[in-house]
Design a protein that fits this description.
- This protein is an alpha/beta fold.
- The protein has a single domain (about 65-244), classed as Glycerol-3-phosphate (1)-acyltransferase.
- It has helices at about 1-35, 40-60, 90-95, 115-120, 130-145, 175-180, 195, 230-244; strands at about 60-65, 80, 100-105, 125, 150-155, 185-190, 210-215.
- A 7-stranded mixed β-sheet has the order 1-7-6-2-5-3-4, sandwiched between helices.
- The protein is globular.
Length: about 240
């Protein structure tokens, strides 16, 4: 009972911290987005996100312990595949990826939100899953994003894992992108994010260490869509091993 009350109170505190920090940093991001050139916007806005994110995680008591960053190769772009345990992943995952610049997959349309849409587009690559022509154009956009120095993050489970299983079913999207772009897959495993914030109890938070593991990149050069099932199983095996 006392533990549940503490988690609920800490969640309220955490949300308050989150909103206060955003109230400071989002206006700065919007102004810089309007004033700076394209290359400067990328560097400065990502720096702001990283500073704001670090402040938020520190104040709410979510400390990152990251292993495997020695696998990052300078100048290489990746398709980052991450398991999804809680809402905390959206902030902890990208911050653990520094110095990589990550952009997550998002649905087309959210970039049209007034003011903040211009900031979102720095962190999200939009995919239109409509007709064949739209999908083909989305693939070209993904390749363009990679050529600009970004890695693309995808949650193959699609949404937060609310089951007792370590992993849920994987969707094909992230693996298709890796094969289509011929970029290596970098597997990110968030080991215990659900201990901090359970997906079945979204309004509770427990401070503590968040363990994140980066695994050896999986090469996709020369692979075709026939290799997709094999690729899915390989990534699943890596994540399950990291989850213990």
């Amino acid at each position: 009972m006392l533990s549940r009350i503490f988690r609920q109170l800490w969640f309220i505190y955490g949300i308050t911290v989150f909103l206060l920090v955003l109230c400071v940093f989002i206006p700065i991001s919007i102004i810089l987005n309007l004033l700076l050139g394209r290359k400067a916007r990328k560097a400065i806005i990502f720096l702001i996100f990283r500073v704001a994110g670090r402040i938020i995680l520190f104040l709410i008591g979510a400390w990152l312990k990251v292993k495997g960053k020695e696998h990052f190769q300078k100048g290489q772009q990746y398709i980052v595949l991450s398991n999804h345990q809680s809402a905390l992943d959206i902030m902890a995952g990208p911050l653990s990826a520094v110095p990589l610049f990550l952009r997550s997959l998002g649905k087309a349309g959210t970039d049209k939100i007034p003011l903040i849409g211009g900031v979102f587009k720095h962190f999200v690559v939009y995919v239109n899953r409509g007709d064949a022509a739209s999908r083909a154009k989305s693939v070209e956009n993904l390749k363009k994003t990679l050529s600009e120095g970004f890695s693309i993050q995808v949650y193959p489970e699609g949404s937060r894992n609310r089951t007792e299983e370590k992993l849920t079913k994987f969707y094909d999207g992230g693996f298709r992108i890796a094969i289509q772009t011929q970029k290596p897959i970098l597997v990110q495993t968030l080991v215990n994010a659900r201990d901090r914030m359970r997906p079945t109890r979204p309004f509770q938070f427990m401070p503590g260490v968040v363990h994140i593991i980066w695994s050896t990149p999986i090469e996709t050069k020369g692979l075709s869509m026939e290799d997709l099932p094999m690729l899915k199983e390989k990534v699943r095996a890596v994540m399950l091993q990291n989850l213990g």
